[in-house]
Every structure is written in structure tokens, then in C-alpha cells.
Amino acid sequence: MESTLAAEVGDWLLSRTGGSGGARSTTTLMGMRWDVLPGVWKPNPGTRLFTSWLPLTDGTRFLEVGCAAGVTCVVAARSGCARVVGLDVVPAATENTRRNAARHGVAGRVEALTSDLFAGLDPGDEFDLICSNPPLVRAPDSRQYATQIERSVFDPGYTLHRRFFQEVRPHLADGGRIYMLTSETLGDPEGLRSLAADAGFSNRVYRSEEIGIPVALMGSPPAAAAAADEQGVVHVDFTMFEFQRY
Ligand SMILES: C[S@@+](CC[C@H](N)C(=O)[O-])C[C@H]1O[C@@H](n2cnc3c(N)ncnc32)[C@H](O)[C@@H]1O
Fold this sequence. Notes:
Bound molecules: S-adenosylmethionine
CATH topology: Rossmann fold
Strand order of the largest sheet: 5-4-3-6-9-11-10
Number of domains: 1
Radius of gyration: 17 Å
Largest sheet: 7 strands, mixed
CATH architecture: 3-Layer(aba) Sandwich
Number of strands: 11
């Protein structure tokens, strides 16, 4: 179940980064300019941490689940990964990933597929590194999505996380690693460990960092106001787990 703080921060993130409404826009992250199409999750500090932490090396076969505007796929291609595939359930996101790949000179090296988790892959597709910055907030089972963009923040019943670990195995090469972002503040790292263990994966915390959000910027909702420090800052961690097969 989401905490009230997670719900408040999730709603605020959605209002800030939940796409660009009905208009195309651009944003700057990691010293590069990115197109953002309507209805696509806008690259943000979480994207930067997630992307910069990944161990991207020459020759890696790279898969991202939930590629959104394509920042991580573009950086993977520019880092020398041998094959780069980005999946997203939102069609505008895969179109957005193709545009940003073209903008940054790697159009021929990034494949973007509209896909519910791994459904769009061929059965034999295998990757050395599979990563995801998923919807972090564990929402109540009964939550319905009012808009597509809510799929970027809320995971009702943690169903998407559960399905990820049930379905990822055929696509992870021998010796391959999974990197997934979570958060003590926003998500359910213990639930995540448990889902991964049930599916036969060991885990360790790979990286973690806190970001401070001034509560006034959020409009001072009650749980965030209660959690803020004496400077009026709410501390939100972003934590990357590494998983591998037992
Ligand atoms: C938090 S956003 C992260 C986007 C991007 N990777 C980043 O770091 O900025 C999560 C992404 O997962 C996508 N997503 C949600 N459910 C999905 C599913 N069932 N299959 C594939 N992608 C999904 C959303 O559309 C969204 O683009």
C-alpha cells in the first residue's frame, strides 16, 4: 500500500514531469537537449541518477523497460552498447525515443518497441543488461489509471513489478544483470526483494542517493509537511538494486 507521503510526492511528480500536456517541448538533462512529446514522462533528476549509475560498457546487449523519452537508450548507444532496445507500453514514448535517438546521432542503433513489458520481444532475444526505472509508487490494488501518464508513477498492487520478475528470465543472458530503481520513500524495496527472490533472483543495493524537495514547492501537502526537516525540505531517496539469477 502506498504511504500518504509517497502518494503526495507521486502526485507532485506527475504534475511536474507528467509529460508536456498537449504540446511538444524540449528539456535539458545530462548536458543534452531532449524532445518530449505529449503524454510522455519528462526526463528528470531520477532519470539522470538512473542513467548515470548504469554500468554501460562496450559490447553490452542492453534492454530498457519503460524507455519514455529515450534518454537512457541514447546514452547506452553512445556508450558503445552493442544492441540497444527500449520498450514502453505508451506508443508516444517509443516514437519519442526514436526522435531523440535521431537527434543525438544514434538512430540506427536504438530499437524502440511499443510493448507491455517483454511482450514485443522475440522469444530468443537475450540481453546482458536489463534495466528499468519503473512506476515507483506502490498504489492500492483498486487504483485505476485515469490517464496513460499515471503508468509512469503508480503501480497498483505492485502488479507490474511482480510481472517483471515473472517474465524477465528468458531474456536475461547467462551472467546477465538487472538494474531497477526503487525508493524507500516512494516505493516498497522489501516487497521488491521478495518478488525477485520468489522468481529466483538475488539482490543487492547498487547505488542510492537522496534528493531534497522543498515542501513549499509541492504546495505543502500534509504528509510531506510533516516529513520535512527544519529547513522545510523533504528527503526522497532513489535506490538502484542489482539482481542476478541464483
Ligand atoms: C518512471 S517512467 C521512467 C521513464 C524513463 N526510463 C526515465 O527514467 O525517465 C516509467 C515508464 O514505464 C512505462 N511503463 C509503464 N508500464 C509499462 C509496461 N507495462 N510495459 C512497458 N513500459 C511501461 C511508462 O509508460 C513510463 O514511460
